[in-house]
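User: Can you help me understand a structure? I only have the sequence.
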Amino acid sequence: MRTAARPRPAELPVGDEKRRAVRAMFDAIAPRYDVVNKVMTFGLDVIWRRRTVGLLGLPGHSLVLDLACGTGDLVRALRRAAHVPVGLDISAGMLANARVQGAPLVLGDGAALPVRAASVDGVVSGFALRNFADLAAVLAELARVVRPGGRIALLDVSQPEGQVLSAGYRIWFNRVVPRIGRILSDPAAYRYLPESVAYLPPPAELLVMLADAGFAGAVRHQLSGGLVQVLTGTRS
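Assistant: Let's start by predicting it. Here is the structure, written out as tokens:
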């Protein structure tokens, strides 16, 4: 049984409007993106990304695409795990501010990857699923480019289930994060980011979407008490 989707505020963009808005937003916040990330996650984002690479479960020297790579945090985590990463992002501003050496970075759209079919061993992404204009199309593209037996590990926000942690999460994410963004970066962008959780399908639906796209044995891993989740699967 699927969990009901969260209602989406009417003012949140969809379709091509969302794609343009997301690109412009990340271009704008790129110079301060890393600083704000570290402040608003207390540095836990480093642990979450390292865990995502571990959950990918691929041997060293695997060719792995980092989808929506931003400034390259997951690219660097992949390199530390002895993988061969390639970063891709729709935001030229994020790529321009990437702190990555020795790994190619490509400007591109997740729904139309400039990658040959069955040419990569795996795909990771960090906090990107809710920002895609057409998530089903993106998952179909991942299934196209990942070789049979290859793996995906997709990191994004989640909703803690415990009452106390859930209450603290809502206060932090909905009230404190926008204030941090207002002080350190772009106020509108960090109002949007908490609201954008409404784009994310419920966990059960996400797992069904992965299976429908062609990823067998899809599993949802909750980290830090459910503050974030990692979705994994193996290409059929």
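Now, to help you interpret it: Residues 15-235 form a domain with the Rossmann fold fold (CATH 3.40.50.150). The beta strands are 63-67, 84-89, 105-107, 120-126, 146-157, 215-223, 228-235. Let me know which part you'd like to focus on.
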